[in-house]
């Protein structure tokens, strides 16, 4: 049997609380189903800085490289607002993405039927929404050099970041988007700002070529990223798969998540290229929400995004499609029963805490 | 009497149709009120490329520099999708912004009461919405160098754009935001991505210093730009003035515009620094919507954003506050009467074309 080594990096804020529910689930699956998950743990973010002075230690980084999959909670909080840029909590996540070469970030924005009414958008605009944002995750302005602040003298400084994309990076991320579209509604929308950015011109060109050469059966549209943001708000159901760069993907996927009325519910997967020999992809699974320091430690955080990230992990890293489907159904069933954490609570529903929500999902699983 | 020289650059697509309504209004004001506007016209965008091979000619650029204010329609369309990057329609607008040093882009997102129901957001989320996005317009990734595509050989290219901000640029745009906040609800939210961008670190630092040194009476919040986009969708009324950079401002202002359910209604002003001697600011006024080639030439475009841009022009360039107020009230009155162009039409309302809408506003003015 193939190994199922998981590294759990719970991180800061509500990360550990949400991760605790996944740990219970893993134990239950090992006990009752003999699923054979082996877990190890490490530190990332502010807690790693407190322990080691770095946002992730080399030892934990080595564990992540060796694991079959990493489950990641969330990082950051006001406690670390003043730490040096190089060791800020986010640096741990960025190092994981970069060193593991997790270039493909999959962010589904799904509107759970039970929650359609709780979106700030009209119910008919979001009901049944199911889009997938494929965000490039190891390139662009996040990692391009030069990236620095220069002292110009006279009280003037200059802040510089560099957006860089090479052909092969655009090719491989659009390949992922086209492949996934084939398993869905067969429609990809590529977003960039080719009207002001040279990287956008190249993006548009390479996506078009990749489509022509290998995926001509998939419907492809191009949209300027600003117009894309507007269209997401106006009528999101026009989209199936959206493929875009690191920074636009950051903005657009958060907006898409918010449309669903349930940012506390949405998982993500970050995947590397398949290994030439083993065909296995390095992978990290992470809720879209952040560390939410304002509610951490109160037992009220919504663990669903973290649990749903574990479902994605089973699906993409271990081919456990049945179990992933069952876990996603368990989440939907618990919502149908009216159970709600505070962030998604509405009149007539039953408010529960983090552990109760986790227990209820496990019970339905 | 101070001069009132206007340069009209109608541009492409629905630009000329919308501009025609403003021309009628200007004639009426000159005839009946002796307003004394003197207009000249020029070409920008695709039509300028067709005529001169450039997105704006040096002669028209000189006219823009000399005018008291520029009214701008819209540029671009599929006809020019394949023209070289340097002369694409948008290059005309970008040259105007850069050469006139229009660093401050003011984009009000206002929800007209008559249209609150037509937003894709729930009525209570957007009703009464009145936020102002102050976008830096002459810096950042739009203009930073290097900006190029390099051929790396082996079929590989590299697309590069550079995000650059200097202290003085952040200082002056935040000064504009704080000043405007004082005339409103006295609250500024600054948005950047300091957790991944060095320019964001500098942005945050300079806004904080400017606030402390000169505007401590204004409430200041900082938000990461991705979280800001989410909050705009979740509960936009939490904002008063948002100040942000060129690229984030592009994305966020379009999203804010879409919230109001009426992108065809929203104007913008782009202002330079006050001249040391005359105190006059160079200025360009422009609807937020684009050239909408799909509906151009059909007489159905909504001229309200263009007319409202002229109201901003009267307010900011000529101190004609009474006339600006009256024009904005005329727009609201026509909507209250149930008149709608197709883009904002809803059951029970009266659908009208571009000229009818323009005439109705002039009649109420
Ligand atoms: C925490 C931060 C560095 C990160 C990003 O900007 O990528 C987050 O916003 C995300 O979207 O995963
Ligand atoms: C036309 C384009 C260059 C422009 C921009 O990106 O600034 C437009 O989207 C805007 O927001 O004014």
Automatic annotation (TrEMBL), chains A, B:
Subcellular location: Cytoplasm
Subunit structure: Homodimer.
Record domain Isopropylmalate dehydrogenase-like: where: 5-361
Record EC number: 1.1.1.85
Gene3D superfamilies: Isopropylmalate Dehydrogenase
Record organism: Mesorhizobium mediterraneum
GO biological process: L-leucine biosynthetic process
GO cellular component: cytosol
Cofactor binding note: Binds 1 Mg(2+) or Mn(2+) ion per subunit.
Sites where the protein binds substrate: 97, 107, 135, 226
Pfam families membership: Iso_dh
Physiological role: Catalyzes the oxidation of 3-carboxy-2-hydroxy-4-methylpentanoate (3-isopropylmalate) to 3-carboxy-4-methyl-2-oxopentanoate. The product decarboxylates to 4-methyl-2 oxopentanoate.
Protein's UniProt keywords contain Protease: no
Protein name stated in the entry: 3-isopropylmalate dehydrogenase
Highest taxon in the source lineage: Bacteria
